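Could someone model zinc ion with this protein?
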Amino acid sequence: MSDNLEINKREYPSSFSKTAIVICLDGSQKEYLEEASKSNLTPNLDKLISSGENLLVHSAIPSFTNPNNISIVTGQPSSVHGICGNFFYTPETGEEVMMNDPKYMRAPTIFEKFYNSGSKIALVTAKDKLRTLLGNGLSFDDERAICFSAEKSDQATKDLNGIDNVNDWLGMPVPEVYSEGLSEFVMAAGVKLLEEFKPNIMYLSTTDYIQHKYAPGNETANKFYAMFDKYIGLLNQENVSIIITADHGMKPKSKEDGSPNAIFLQDYLDKKFEPNIAKVILPITDPYVVHHGSLGSFATIYLEDKSKVASVVNAIKEIKDIEVVLTKDEGCSTYNLPLDRMGDIICMSSEFMTIGSSEDKHNLSGLNEPLRSHGGLHEREVPFISNLKLQNLDTSKQLYNYDAFYYAINGAL
Ligand SMILES: [Zn+2]
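Reply:
Sure, complex below.
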C-alpha cells in the first residue's frame, strides 16, 4: 500500500507507476464528440472509450474557463481556491481586478504538492492567461517541471518554464491566438513531452476558439475533433491513465437574425431604479473577447445600498430569460463560490440567452458568427472520459470535472 498525499482535503496516492494525464478540452459540449464520432472521425477516442468510461459530469459554476481550469488542478471548487471568474470587483475602490495573478489563489495546485514530493510535472496550456496560475508553486531549476503556453511558446525559458526553444523542439511555429492551431500545439507538445520528458503528471488545456464559432457537427468543428483524435491515438499507451474532460459546454446564444441574444442588465436596472444603484459585473470579461464579446450566462450584481437587495432580486425575477436569481449567501452556498468575491446578487440566464451589462459597453464587432457562449447551468454538463475503468466510483455522489486528477492518479497506480 502506498501512502497518501493530502491536497486540499482530498487524499491522493502518493506514488503511482503510470503517467496520469488530464486533458481539459475547452468548451467541449458532449455533442461535439458525438457528432465527430458519428462521422467516424474519432476512431482512437472510440477505442479508448470502449475499454474505459464515457460519463457526463458537472463543471464548477460559473461555467467559465479559468474557474474550471483552477478547479480541475486543485481538485476543489471556487469556494476553496478563490478563482471565480476572469476578474473580480472591489466595491471599496471601484477597481476591477484581473484574477490571473497567482496571489489570488487560495489553495495549492495538485502539481505543486506532487512536485514537492518528488514527481515530474508537465503542463501545457493554449492561452498564456492560465499559465502563471497553473504553474504556481513549481520550480524550474531541477528539470522536474515544465509549464508553458502555446500562445507564448517562443518566449519560454529554462528559468521560467523549464524548457526553451519550444518551437524548434516541437517543429511548430507560434500559432495564431485565435486559431485551431493553438490547441493542436498543446496536443502535439503533450505527445512529445510524454515520449521525452516522461512526466508523472501531465495537464493539457486547449482553447475554445472553434467551439465559440462552430456548432457540433459543423465541418470545421469535426475537423478539430479529428485533429484531437489523432493525438489521442498517440497518447493512449499502455503506461498512461487519461481523463478527458472540459471546463464548460457551449450553447448557441443568438437570435434568428444572427445577432446576439442578450439581456443588458445594467441598462435594465438603470431604467427600473436610478442609474448606478447597481453595478453589473460579468466575470467572463477578459482581454480575449473577440469570440464572445463578453457575453456569457452568468452575472453578479453589487449594490451600494444593501437594503435594496430584495427589490432588485424581484425586479430581475421579472425578466423571463433569467432563470436563476439568488442572494450572495444563497448563490455561494448552492454553487460553492467565494463570498468575498461575489456581488450581492448572483444570476444566470436561460439556455439560449446571455447577460450583458450596458449595450454600449459591449464591442461585438469581432463576432463574425452567431454568438455561442457559456457561463450558466446549461453549459455545466461536460464529458468525463477515461481510458480505464474508474476505480471506486461513488455513483451516489455528483461527479465533477474537478475530480479528474483524483481518478487519473488512482488509475495510474
Ligand atoms: Zn473555456
